[in-house]
Specification:
Keywords: Aromatic hydrocarbons catabolism, Hydrolase. The chain has 442 residues and is α/β, with parallel strands linked by helices. It has 17 helices and 13 strands. Helix 15 links the parallel strand 12 and strand 13. Helix 3 packs antiparallel against helix 4.
């Protein structure tokens, strides 16, 4: 049932993870229907406020019904963003001529200046409202998601799961190719109904106020979301944390889930030993070691002290931009120049979403949640597909996928372009990969 139209309104007030195996490259590195205004006297720091507010924005309360979500960020929040960008204090420039110390000063200055003077949040806002946004309460949290149905009668539902520092905006340019394939190089038999949720603590989903929201719990919530949407036969897709959530969905086997497609499997996030004998395995292990040595600083902080990190990210949009822009530099298939692939505008869609929703700390806590325990290899028995994009952080060897997935129906490690943010960087290729997998399970 759909009811209501909602708007965002201004609020009245402006232990270390265990590391036991080189196989886990990330683990190794770490180690009702209307807008509401907060009552006078209720601050954004109180527990009650945290359940209802997002930074300077107030999310409407939501129940089990699926409610249409109309987005309108108050102009005061955008004005405050520009004020903070104008007043930013920057550090000295790096002492090297590459990106080995992090984001170069001149490059960040260019991104921030574009953000301050040129970037148009309202364009994204209008696009999202036209696309179809919704919220519903699952397991005590308001969950935000996009939902676009195909006009093709035999379309297969798919739930697309993002990671960090991504968001639902990663998948926006895949919606057309997936829902309307006849206009994007496919056939009517390739069509999907598309569901794109925001992880708890990300985007316009609520921020958890208690611990426990790990990938398994999120997976259970997504199973309930698909049931609530009336989908009785569907697939799930994900990479990064989305890959972990998708894997847990496959482990839980909610009614209707017939298969999963991954572009970064969960076992790449764990300490599971999978072998080290073939050339492909040796290459993957070498990539893990490079990641641990050069790219893992963010990971240690988010997995151990996300709250401390969150203070800087909540207070400085320039700091939030640098924190995410660094990942676009290091993780895209762009020779460290993501603006050539994504452009400033699309990168800032994602960065601005994190800033306006004040989700720097809440999104980082997923690392803390996941790495409280050791993880055994999750062995799956339903049909699995894996697409290995060429500039992924660590390229999954087929032999590892075969050990984890007893019904590996699709595996492709010969893709022409794309990195860690596969759907964001290469939406057409991503859609083709998902179609190719889905043809094996429809």
């Amino acid at each position: 049932m759909l009811r209501g139209t909602t708007r965002l309104a201004p609020s009245p007030a402006d232990e270390s993870p265990r590391t036991n195996s080189r196989r886990g490259f990330l683990r190794t590195a770490a180690l009702a229907g209307t807008a509401s205004v907060l009552p006078i006297g209720l601050t954004a720091n109180s527990p009650a406020a945290q359940a209802a507010t997002v930074a300077d924005l107030t999310l409407p309360p939501v129940g089990r019904d699926i409610e249409r979500f109309h987005l309108h960020v108050p102009q005061s929040a955008l004005n405050d963003l520009r004020r903070r960008l104008s007043a930013a204090r920057l550090p000295d420039p790096e002492t090297v001529e590459d990106v080995s110390q992090g984001v170069p000063l001149n490059r960040l200055r260019g991104l921030v200046e574009y953000w301050r003077t040129t970037y148009d949040w309202r364009a994204l806002e209008a696009r999202l409202n036209l696309t179809g946004q919704y919220r519903t309460q699952i397991d005590g949290l308001g969950i935000h998601f996009l939902h676009v149905r195909s006009e093709h009668p035999n379309a297969l539902p798919v739930i697309l799961n993002h990671g960090w520092p991504g968001s639902f905006v990663e998948f926006l340019d895949t919606i057309g190719p997936l829902t309307d394939p006849t206009r994007h190089g496919g056939s009517a038999d390739d069509a999907f109904h598309v569901v794109i949720p925001s992880m708890p603590g990300h985007g316009f989903s609520d921020r958890p106020t208690q611990s426990g929201w790990d990938p398994a719990r999120i997976a259970a919530a997504w199973g309930e979301l698909m049931r609530r949407l009336g989908y009785h036969r569907y697939i799930a897709q994900g990479g990064d944390w989305g890959g972990a959530v998708t894997t847990q969905m496959a482990k839980q086997r909610p009614n209707g889930l017939i298969g999963v497609h991954l572009n970064l499997p969960e076992f790449m996030l764990t300490n599971t030993a999978l072998g080290d004998s073939t050339p492909e395995e040796q290459a993957a292990i070498a990539q893990q070691q490079v990641f641990a040595a050069q790219y893992s600083g963010y990971f240690q902080e988010q997995a151990t002290r996300p709250q401390t990190l969150g203070y800087g990210l909540a207070d400085s949009p320039t700091g939030q931009a640098a924190w995410i822009y660094e990942k676009f530099i290091d993780w895209t298939d762009s020779d460290h120049h993501p603006e050539h692939v994504l452009g400033y505008g699309r990168m800032l869609d994602d960065i601005t979403l994190y800033w306006l929703t004040n989700t720097g700390a809440s999104s980082a806590r997923l690392y803390w949640e996941f790495y409280r325990d050791n993880h055994d290899l999750t062995v799956l028995h339903l049909p699995v597909g894996v697409s290995v994009f060429p500039a992924e952080l660590v390229r999954t060897p087929k032999v590892w996928a075969e050990k984890a997935y007893k019904d590996l129906v699709y595996f492709n490690d010969d893709i022409t372009a794309g990195g860690h943010f596969a759907a964001f960087e290469q939406p057409r290729i991503f859609a083709e990969e998902l179609r190719a997998y889905a043809r094996r399970v429809r």
